[in-house]
Amino acid sequence: KLHSDLDKGVGTVKYTLSGDGAGTVFTIDETTGDIHAIRSLDREEKPFYTLRAQAVDVDTKKPLEPESEFIIKVQDINDNEPKFLDGPYVASVPEMSPVGAYVLQVKATDADDPTYGNSARVVYSILQGQPYFSIDPKTGVIRTALPNMDREVKEQYQVLIQAKDMGGQLGGLAGTTTVNITLTDVNDNPPRFPKSIFHLKVPETSHVGSAIGRIRAVDPDFGKNAEIEYNIVPGDGGNLFDITTDEYTQEGVIKLKKPLDFETKKAYTFKVEASNLHLDHRFHSVGPFKDTATVKINVLDMDEPPVFSKPMYTMEVYEDTPVGTIIGAVTAQDLDAGSSSVRYFIDWKNDVDSYFTIDAAEGTIATNQLLDRESTAQYNFSIIASKVSNPLLTSKVNVIINVLDVNEFPPEISVPYETSVCENAKPGQVIQTITAADKDLSPAGQRFSFKLSSEASNKPNFTIHDYRNNTAGIETRRNGYSRRQQELYFLPVVIEDSSYPVQSSTNTLTIRVCRCDSDGTIQSCNVEAIFLPVGLSTGALIAILLCIVILLVIVVLYVALRRQKKKDTLMTSKEDIRDNVIHYDDEGGGEEDTQAFDIGALRNPKVIEDNKIRRDIKPDTLRFPRHRPPAEDNTDIRDFINQRLQENDVDPSAPPYDSLATYAYEGNGSVAESLSSIDSLTTEADQDYDYLSDWGPRFKILADMFGEEESYNPDKVT
């Protein structure tokens, strides 16, 4: 209830309310100031509300007092039961645990106010699960209540837990949850055989390593606590069998270690022990965690193949033994009660087996071909024996035949030797150590002896020393050797073996004489130095050869220069005659001045050079002439010069720079015609220029020039 001191009760004051829940949860009477809740309140939803109230004048609407704030607190009542938020629970505890063993702790939550009354005070109790388990009423810890709970008796337990508020008093609210408890296994039970004796029947033909039977011990435990190990107790028959554990079924698998024979022994008895692999020391007092049973095995008689007297046969025979010689025999027997005859034959696999034959009834092995130890030293094949009464029952044995050696090959030098001796060698010096080899194979090992042949032992050059260990040394007998006298020596060496009959061979050893230094190091074994004069060293010989080479080079250069000079002089003379004009000091002019160019060709248009050669440059190569039609007679000189100009412009052989070319035209009908020798049908050597002297003083210079050429030509015979 709100009330202002200014309120006289005449209705002039109006009360207003604002804040949390104003108008929705709470309302106020504007005239009296009474505050009412208009809906149910839940402390767990909102424990308090903050509101603001004010008194205002009804007429002026102005506040009569400042706004005041107040809090409405929701008082709790016990309207929420305890709840197990993590339930239902799952727990486990080892079997055979003592009383009070911890299992699990449960917890219930009450939404009521724990600070007000006992609404949130929870007490735990067991509604279902006694007398096996108990719970602490305050903490909710569950523990075992009975000792020695056995998993093999009961494994699963379901416990119903209650949590009640108000301290468990009458009228309190309660909640429940379920706890599923499992007893885990411990190794508290030993393995036990369901019976004391196991009977097994095994055929005598069972293979070694095969499983011949199974036995099983029972262990009520679970998992690794139920794993069993089986062992055969040492005793009668136990050494023929073995036992292992099947990891999936925990059965004992009996296997055969050795072959069985009904004719030798018909029954075996032994004991088998079963024990746990993982023991728990807490239960040792219960007793030994193992059990023992007896196994009796009866061997069944079966029709078996023949049995050879040996697992393998080894025989020996000399090479070149005559065909049909018996070298040994194999024996097999039928050990069954009704003994049957045995037949033998060779297991043919390749052509090697055809070297031998076997008697089908007796089992004797004989040679079928001549044997050669050097070709094949050992033969390996199989013999098969079968029962006459049942040919399908066969057995096989391996036969090895070693071919013994007969001394038929002489010993020889093992490797080719390159033996040399120094010119300055001393007597008794070992120059080579030799060894020998023999294709024959002696059981006691070969011994070789070395000596010189009779003709070599009389020569004073070399000797041989036998070291008695299958080696020998070649020794010198002279004081020095000369390559000039003899470069190669051939030494015949006789080698004998120690086998019977004795075999020997003569081997020729080639010894080369070499030049050595004072320490005996070989410097040269070639023959080029043998023919050098005495006292002439290698350095002097090289100097002489160099001098000879230098003189030859000088002579060749001199001859080449002389030939080049003659060629240049002849070429210059020919060029002066054909392409150049003689220069002289007389002043002149007109037609007698021939210094600029050869005007003769222009004076006769019919005589045109087939091969145009520039007069201001030296031609490099000879170009093929171009045949052009001569200018027509009585043609204007201007047209003729333009034609020549055009020909030079389009000439590909012309140089790529400007050059001076002089053109002139004298006309037709010259008495002397052309003086050029380009069109001449004869060579220079065949022409006679004496007629130039008869042409007058104008041709005097030409007559003198060609006259000098004739006198200069060395090839012309006068």
From TrEMBL:
It is found in: Cell membrane. The keyword Lyase does not apply. Pfam families: CADH_Y-type_LIR, Cadherin. Keywords: Calcium, Cell adhesion, Cell membrane, Cleavage on pair of basic residues, Glycoprotein, Membrane, Metal-binding, Phosphoprotein, Repeat, Signal, Transmembrane, Transmembrane helix. Its main location: membrane. PANTHER family: CADHERIN-12 (PTHR24027:SF96), CADHERIN-23 (PTHR24027). This is Cadherin-12. The gene is Cdh12.
